[in-house]
Amino acid sequence: MRYGMRSINKGCEGRDVQELQIRLSGFVGGVPDGDFGPGTERQVMAFQRDVMAQSQPSGVADMETLEALESFAAQHPMNWQDLACPCGVCRGFGQGLAQGEYRAEQPHIEAYHQYEYAGIHRSLLWALRAIIHYHPQLDLTISSGYRCSVNNRQKGRTSTNHHGKAIDIATHGSREQRMMQSDRLRDDIMHQCNAQLGWQHGNKKSLEPANIAPTWVHLDVRCFAPKFLGDEHFCRNPVELDRPL
After folding, report:
1. Are 110 and 99 in contact (CB under 8 A)?
2. How far is the CA of 239 from the CAs of 100, 105, 234, in angstroms?
3. What is the full DSSP assignment across the chain?
4. What is the rounded average pLDDT of the residues 148-173?
């Protein structure tokens, strides 16, 4: 079923459910498995309560809710200049290199997958919209988005998280202020976006702990299973971000 063609509720399955789950990634969201169960119902209710200001959210993604999601997207456009790779060689989102290639000592572990994914994972950017919504008092910006293999060589890095699977969110102020804001933001994201601190569990959004990211917030999807990391889950421009699966 194409997204937007029906009201979606518990028991529904399909690509339109996947799309709904992506768009609600920042509202206690999990992976877009296309199965509308209790977790997806909880996502819908969080959006209806916290964005639509419904005192008695139904948990049903009716047409009013789907239209509210469209308005929510329009209210929170992305800064694609900040998201694009700064290497000066690729076109901003890698060159599609090294699919299926891993560092030799860590075969088939996503953290060591060398593939330059086709953009930024959509779940991250829809989650960012929710993070911005929940924290209007903070001037949040993207400090790092896509970083291709060329940029990694330029900077002497080996991590491939930023090959489309991660964003870094910056706060502003003194170092002490940024550390405090980042700590609070991580705590909130764990609850509001259903993220984990570290990478212990599969199929969850992950946050780097403060000893790795003291003055910024790093959010990634490297713990997602391969079926949730297909090219269709990534985007390189606003049209791809908001175009349904």
Report:
1. no
2. 27, 38, 11
3. --TTSS-B-TT-BSHHHHHHHHHTTTTT-----SB--HHHHHHHHHHHHHTS--SS----B-HHHHHHHHHHHHHS---HHHHS--SSSSSSS-----TT-B-TTSTT-GGGB----SSEEHHHHHHHHHHHHH-TTS--EEEE----HHHHHHHT----TTTTSEEEEE--SSHHHHHHHHHHHHHHHHHHS-EEESS-STTSEEE--TTT-SSEEEEE-TTS-GGGSSGGGEESSHHHHHS--
4. 96
Q: Considering the chain, what is the average pLDDT of its residues?
A: 96
Q: How far from 137 is each of 47, 101, 145, 158, 181, CA to CA, in Å?
A: 19, 42, 22, 35, 11
* Phi, psi for 8 (deg, rounded to 5): -115, 130
For 80-108, what is the mean pLDDT? 92
Which pair of tokens denotes residue 131? Answer: 């993070």
**CATH pick for 80-242 out of 3.40.109, 3.30.1380, 1.10.287, 2.40.30:** 3.30.1380
What are the CA-CA distances from residue 47 to residues 39, 55, 191, 192, 224 (Å)?
13, 11, 14, 11, 23
pTM over 0.70? The answer is yes
d(CA 233, CA 42) in angstroms, rounded, equals 22
- Predicted local distance difference test score (pLDDT) of residue 23: 98
User: Can you give the pLDDT at residue 193?
Assistant: 96
CB 221 within 8 A of CB 124: yes
Per-residue pLDDT, 53: 98
